[in-house]
Design brief:
The protein has 540 residues and is α/β, with parallel strands linked by helices. Helix content is 36%, strand content 16%. The chain folds into two domains: 296 residues, FAD/NAD(P)-binding domain, CATH 3.50.50; 114 residues, Flavocytochrome C3, Chain A, domain 1 (Alpha-Beta Complex). Strand 7 and strand 8 form a beta hairpin. The structure holds succinic acid.
Length: 540
């Protein structure tokens, strides 16, 4: 273990020399981390909130387009819960669905609209304008044009910044969770229960590592999309929390359930920009290169509004059948009369125009892309992991809500509900003081790290992870492909670990170490489960 000491920050200076400390350390600044910070800050806890990026808004939340499913008209919580369970293909936790649908609407009203001032689109009568998305039996999705995540992220960040007892630090990359069993210098620590004591964190500006001790730690570090070649996720989504939790000894469950979004823009220069499911919710239809609306062949009842796993696989098959590199999403030719396409989807309209596609006149070329991790760090109904004093909320966590396939627009709501619940549990039962074992935690040592990072090696190794995952552990999986993936990623893991041990830290190196372990976790789970269910599809 390597370490270099940096002095504790102003308010967070620890009694333990060289370390920073707080009552609550939150890793990640998407919706779940920000809600946790807001709730804890309001309750008077001393909070340290870390973003690994220089701009803390840079998160999966920021890029969420469609919206946040809350409640529609004539829409009892039980109906919403049934939709979640149906999309989850028999693997969603009924308890989690019950918690989400009964507590969610009040929390959105209180925290997002009330406290943070999030604005959702309204009808001319001043009611919330509800939109539809696949597999929802009511129009129950609140949205802000097609940039709902951006609105929520920026308003929540502003609300958190107003709290004097929340210290928001950017450019802080968590390396490893600190646990008594792994890091204590006390030889007797192994006889006591293992507890989480905070995290070692790389400060990008100084290239030093800070020991952040905390009575409670909340992992809110987001998803894993970047372990795949094609993803709707930003570069931040490298599986950091999943890998850290695994190294610390917490369970990761349902890791085979990686959700592919059916419609990402297919254009050489566009990355995989998301084309929201709300486009289909507002009438958009999937067609092949001949203009044939093919979803009726794959999902005769729900067609374009079938659950995501069904639509993503249908597109995959249609592309294989026709030999075309993409299919098309047509809103221009199928929107209901009177829909102002550019007004309803200004971000998608402007982005597509940049690439020469006018969505008000022509179909959009689309392909599926990795989108959301339905598995994650196993937590209880309050976000408590198996490791005492460690919580996980948002995409990094597995509450069981999403089962084998997430219902659209439920992840933002999950972040709100569990971000809030974790803090409720901490306030009721969590320790307020650092456990005594925190005094035995050494500073990070990095004397042995002499080699400078070689960016070419890191970029190439990450690309190898991404292509391996896309080709062998993607939308359609076979045992042969998964075994090949396990071998290749196993070899890469050993190589990455070997240069990690001798190379000076950078964010990219820390992310690569996490990405390769997360890939291994996904492959292992996919290999162990021969049963096709939801977004885990085993052809053989
Ligand atoms: C979308 O707008 O299609 C994404 C919504 C989600 O992933 O829940």
């Amino acid at each position: 273990m390597t370490q270099r000491v940096k002095g504790g920050s102003r308010r967070g200076r620890s009694a333990i020399r060289g370390a920073a400390s707080s009552e609550l350390l939150i890793i990640g600044t998407g919706i779940a981390g920000l809600v946790a910070a807001l709730e804890a800050g309001r309750a008077g806890l001393d909070v340290t909130l870390l973003s690994k990026m220089d701009d803390p808004a840079e998160s999966n939340t920021y890029y969420a387009q469609g919206g946040i499913a809350v409640r529609g008209l004539d829409d009892p919580p039980g109906l919403f819960a049934r939709d979640i369970l149906a999309a989850g293909a028999g693997s969603s936790s009924p308890d989690a669905a019950g918690v989400l649908t009964s507590e969610g609407p009040a929390k959105v009203a209180e925290l997002l609209i009330g406290l943070a001032g999030v604005e959702f689109d309204q009808t001319e009568d001043g009611e919330i304008n509800l939109t539809a998305e696949a597999a929802h039996s009511r129009r129950r999705i609140y949205h802000h044009q097609d940039a709902t995540g951006k609105e929520i992220e920026l308003k929540l960040l502003a609300a958190v910044r107003r709290l004097p007892n929340v210290r928001l630090l950017s450019g802080q990359v968590a390396i490893d969770l600190i646990t008594s069993a792994h890091h204590s210098m006390d030889p007797l620590a192994v006889y006591a229960p293992n507890v989480c004591l905070g995290a070692y964190v790389f400060d990008s500006a100084s290239s030093r590592v800070v020991t952040h001790l905390a009575a409670n730690t909340v992992l809110a570090s987001g998803g894993i999309g970047r372990i795949y070649l094609h993803t709707t996720n930003p570069s931040t989504a490298t599986g950091d929390g999943v890998a850290m939790a695994r190294r610390a000894g917490a369970s990761v469950i349902n890791a085979e359930y990686v959700q592919f979004h059916p419609t990402a823009l297919f254009h050489r220069d566009a990355g995989r920009f998301l084309i929201s499911e709300a486009v289909r919710g507002e009438g958009g239809r999937l067609v092949n290169a001949k203009g044939e609306a093919f979803m009726k062949r794959y999902a005769p009842r729900l067609k374009d509004l079938a659950p995501r796993d069904v639509v993503a696989r249908a597109i995959h098959e249609e592309m294989a059948r026709t030999g075309e590199p993409c299919v098309f999403l047509d809103i221009a030719g199928s929107a209901p009369r009177g829909l102002d396409i550019a007004g309803r989807f200004p971000t998608i309209h402007a982005t597509c125009l940049k690439y020469g596609i006018d969505i008000t006149r022509e179909p959009i070329p689309v392909v599926p892309a990795a989108h959301y991790f339905c598995g994650g760090v196993k937590v209880d109904p309050f976000g408590q992991t198996e490791l005492p004093n460690l919580f996980a909320v948002g995409e990094v966590a597995c509450t069981g809500l999403h089962g084998a396939n997430r219902l659209a627009s439920t992840s933002l709501l999950e972040g709100v509900v569990w971000g809030s619940r974790a803090v409720r549990r901490i306030l009721e039962h969590g320790p307020r003081e650092l456990p005594a074992s925190a005094r035995t935690i050494p500073p990070w040592r990095d004397e042995g790290l002499v080699e400078e990072e070689d960016p070419v090696l890191i970029t190439q190794d990450l690309l190898t992870v991404q292509t391996t995952m896309w080709n062998y552990a993607g939308i359609v999986r076979t045992e042969k492909r998964l075994r090949r993936a396990a071998d290749d990623i196993g070899y890469l893991y050993r190589r990455v670990m070997s240069f990690y041990r001798s190379t000076k830290l950078t964010r990219q190196l820390i992310e690569l170490r996490n990405a390769v372990l997360t890939a291994q976790i996904v492959i292992d789970a996919a290999l162990r489960n021969p049963q096709s269910r939801g977004c885990h599809f085993r052809k053989a």
